Amino acid sequence: MKSFIVRHCGPIRHSINVPGDKSISHRSAMFAALANGKSTITGFLESEDCLSTINAMRGLGARIEQTGAGTFLIEGCGGTFTAPAQDVDCGNSGTTMRLISGILAAQPFRSRLIGDASLSKRPMGRVINPLTEMGGRFSSEGGRPPLVIEGGELSSISYEMPVASAQVKSAILLAGLFAKGATSVIEPAACRDHTERMLQEFGVHLDLGEADADGRRRIALTGPQTLTARDFAVPGDISSAAFWLVAAAAKEGSDIVIESVGLNPTRTGIITVLQRMGAKIVISPRDGQHAEPLGNVRVVGGPLQGTVIGGSEIPNVIDELPVLAVAGALAQGTTIIRDAKELRVKETDRIAAVAENLRLMGAHVAETEDGMIIEGGHPLHRARLECFGDHRIAMAFAIAGLFAKGETIIENVECVATSYPTFGSTLESVLLS
């Protein structure tokens, strides 16, 4: 599919299953490849980004067999990988490159990580710096890919992150599995904790501190440690569900249920923000023991009000900010997004891209250095939009098109395959309902 062609639609009444969580799929493949024994991963997101992680672990010696849709049997290497015969191609996936750097920094061989044109522009210094402190040897062009890693023995470290980042935290903890002594990461604000949950699920002992009055928290492990294989089910992706949550919340008369979606509290900021805007949302957690909480989310449409999104909640909604900006344009009053400068170094400059596309659709938007100010309530109209090679921009403005007068076209949407390959077919079912 080269473009999305979207028109205004009536109330959305659907039950929707979203694909497996992207962040968790990446980690399940890496952790199973690190483990001793065989693991079966179900619900794996077969997107281009996550398949880059599968192929990278294969290239390092893990035996991986696909046994069904979203199901992979992975025989791990017990933490000892083999030197890759060629460059490790991370495609468009920053998660693959940043997390695998923590593993490869400890391996006794040279490796070279490459990516596509978009990934090659993205900064990697945030993981290079702490891994270098641990003894990793990196070379790059100004902290951007390709990355050459001369792996070897690592030392433990206590590292206070300047900015909350689940990818940085994960890279350090993965490197800490191989280092002697206690490796600790101090996060300045809560960010995704999939790595901590899943490392424990695979048998790693972690010391998880409580957040202090300022929201700082220490996560530590004592190395070396080896993971133990286990079977793991990936829940639905709340970041993929976010597009439909916004669509239903902002459209009067809508009533949708997102089934079996991940409800990790470090990822449900999208629900908190929408509820603050006046959305009617009911969460039904699923009973039973799960490393990652999951359940159903029901949204009933109605009027939304503008809000302020910033501060410590930004790490919790960083991927959802493009579609939350669309929600802001559909709401009454002013929505302010701030403290989100990281959006400028994603697959594209998401602040500039969102502001430009919203203006083209008739919204009133002022771009700031670290976010934007959106004056909601102005009718949206049709436009021909570019997604700038960014999957979340493409999907966010497909949702905007459901509210616009006339036919909206979002061009060059092949990038959506990196995270949500079935988005187009679900969009078609919404338009046909």
Short description:
This protein has 433 residues and is of the alpha/beta class. It contains 13 helices and 23 strands. The protein has 2 domains: 216 residues, Enolpyruvate transferase domain (UDP-n-acetylglucosamine1-carboxyvinyl-transferase, Chain); 212 residues, Enolpyruvate transferase domain (UDP-n-acetylglucosamine1-carboxyvinyl-transferase, Chain), CATH 3.65.10.10.
Short key terms for the protein model shown above:
single chain; 433 residues; alpha/beta; UDP-n-acetylglucosamine1-carboxyvinyl-transferase, Chain; 2 domains; 4-stranded mixed beta sheet; 30% helix
Secondary structure blueprint with pairings:
Blueprint: E1 3-7, E2 13-17, H1 22-34, E3 38-42, H2 48-59, E4 63-68, E5 71-75, E6 88-89, H3 94-104, E7 110-114, H4 125-133, E8 137-141, E9 144-150, E10 158-160, H5 166-176, E11 181-187, H6 194-201, E12 207-208, E13 217-223, E14 232-233, H7 238-250, E15 255-262, H8 269-276, E16 280-285, E17 294-300, E18 308-309, H9 314-317, H10 321-330, E19 334-337, H11 350-360, E20 364-368, E21 371-375, E22 384-386, H12 391-401, E23 407-411, H13 423-432
Parallel strand pairs: 2-15, 3-14, 6-7, 10-11, 18-19, 22-23
Antiparallel strand pairs: 1-23, 3-5, 4-5, 7-9, 8-9, 11-13, 12-13, 15-17, 16-17, 19-21, 20-21
Helix pairs in contact: 1-2, 1-6, 3-5, 4-5, 7-10, 7-12, 10-11, 10-12
